[in-house]
Amino acid sequence: MKVKKYIGDNIQDTIFKVKVDLGSDAIILETRKFTKGGFLGFFGEEKVEVLAGLEENDDSKDKETKQEINNLKNMIQDLSNNVNENVSNSNVPEVLRPLQDYLKGQNVKEQYINKLIKDMSKRKDLDKSNLKLKTKNYLEKKLGNPAPVQTGNSAKVITFLGPTGVGKTTTIAKIAAGFSINEGKKVGLITTDTYRIAAVQQLRTYSDIINIPLKVVYDGDEFKNAVEDFKSEVDLILVDTPGRNWKNKWELGQLNEFAKKSIVDETHLMLSLNMDSRDLDFAVENFNRLGPDKIILTKLDETSTYGDIINLKEKYDKPFSYITFGQDVPEDIDQAHPEILYNYLMGDFNE
Ligand SMILES: Nc1nc2c(ncn2[C@@H]2O[C@H](COP(=O)(O)OP(=O)(O)O)[C@@H](O)[C@H]2O)c(=O)[nH]1
Ligand SMILES: [Mg+2]
Fold it and tell me: Ligand 1: which of 287, 327, 332 to mutate, most ligand atoms within 8 Å of CB?
């Protein structure tokens, strides 16, 4: 990585210098305020120093190792799934076989299909004519009610986590627009995603269009101040985050600390359904350490298999808050109603 140091009078100016010099893909590694000149620390001039870098693609090896570990993990998981499968496969009632096959085709994991088959077998009077309805009742109950963002008497702080590219920034814009334009609520945006300059610009564009304020924060103290500033002015504070940790003092883990101290009220983990199931598992395992409260499912328009809806529900048992199904802001979002999720998953089931 090419790394350079920039000095300016304030953060904005200095970041501007970085952008002009290194472009929008530049990465902010560290920011620091210091006092220049003066006497014994008095009368000095406050300056800002930014350490920025430009990535040269050399992290492919790292990715390969991770992928290998991931593959091994999944092989073990598959082996243990097969053990479960063999036990129960022989006694699946005839009427449930089409359902079993369909769910397999949707990539619902074997152990969860078995659980469903076992539960459904216990239903009285189950036959071909009522199979669909009984499955609908069973699955909708499992999926539970949506758990969207709600405003209250005081300003709520909501953070959005998830791997790079799942749609965090876009979804925040959709939610912000919904509350601001449709419900007339006051919304403030904070971004902690200062890793790439382009990421800040993306959210700034949305904040300009929706006409709501945005604060860009570079460390934990700035984050606390931004929340404090917004608290008296807005109903809702939505916080954008980077997709991964980086070698900076300001890390994602800090948001978890803030959640524990009740500075953050709620955390939504965002996962895109067009990810490979194994990558998805890997992502959830990483982000689950940060204690998300709810799950947002994105890119439902970019897949044709929806089994991960069940896989995630069974494995993590967190409420779903929203689903997104396109790039258009603000319309391509809905609350995660169980009947909508059911339709995505079971829409092509015709037995
Ligand atoms: N097809 C589709 N694309 C989406 C959806 N949500 C976001 N995107 C696109 O995914 C890309 C990455 O989104 P972004 O919000 O920058 O992701 P972030 O890195 O998690 O902040 C952008 O091109 C978005 O327009 C969705 O529900 N469906
Ligand atoms: Mg983003």
Answer: 327
